[in-house]
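Appendix B, record 7
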Amino acid sequence: MKITFLSDNLQGKISFLNHAVSTRGQLPILSNFLLEAANGKLTISATDLEIGISSTIPVNIEKEGSVTIPAKNFSDLLSNIVSQKITLTLDGETLNLTGEKIKASFQTMPSEDFPKLYEEKGEEIINVKKSEIEEFISRIVFAAAIDSSRPALSGVLLDKDKEGALLVATDGYRLSLQKNVFRTTEGLEKPLVVPARIIKELLSIKEETDGVKIFVSEKNNQIIFVQNETVLVGRLIDAEYPDYEKIIPTEFSTKVEIERDVLQNAIKICSVFARETANIIKFTIEKEKMIVSANSPSVGEDIVDVDVKTTGEENEIAFNAKYLLDVLSAVNKETLIFEMNGPLNPGVFRIKGDSSFLHLIMPIRVQE
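Structure tokens (predicted):
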């Protein structure tokens, strides 16, 4: 293998590819990048067997070939090479890198030992704009469970809806639901549980083109996202998603209209005191204001008054401050609706004038 390319063309890809490099060391080959030079392109791949990423750049090929090299050393070196022509030459089991005033060599492992990211792409189920993914998925994915003790909860549910598709994520303490997304869903024949990790990586793809194609390979139980020259692969979660609809209240005794930025700032102020008491923030809802407060016996009390429009009963409820800040950071709309039925029932946030989204948070029981 002998190829030449501009360092800048690869630098932007390498940082994202590193997300799929294994750091656990169970298989040495998983700590490597796979380099494949053919047909005027260099394809670089990485996988930790949970997710896989490959990306392609144009190169000048003198001799085609493939090999794997240590990912960390290669990416660290490349990140410090500024705007110059790079030549990679495979000599036996050594890959030599040369630049204008740089020479380096890497010990390699055979490309045949590197796992395939996928055998087949399968059927294309959805073709969407990246802008849609960024807007809708960012409202959802943060609510998925981080641990995998209940596998389904570590994923995002993708299912058909009347006017497109819907996305759901929950960790058992909070739930995000977004309806009416990805209008063309003819290929989505059954609900899919997609690992939240691969969804988060999807948000990190930096490609100029806006289109994202989504494929499902039933043979290998994989989901594959393709955006321009970058491919992101993950294994679907084979677990039944919980019946989320039964926990969503259909009626509320209290409804509050509130400005997002004002509420977010009030919670940030009170969270300074909440840190001392299990991160508890209390809402006391009156007719024309909401009192946001945190109380710590060892520190003191912090109270912020927020102007609101209240319909229904006066009420009070307490939440984990982190959960509140997570949803307020994810939803970039000016006016929100908060609904509740009492201190022991879940509270629900919606976007004013948009019935397709809701975020539910379970309350914290506070001892008076």
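Remarks on this record: Residues 260-274 form the longest helix (15 residues). DSSP finds six helices and 26 strands in the chain.
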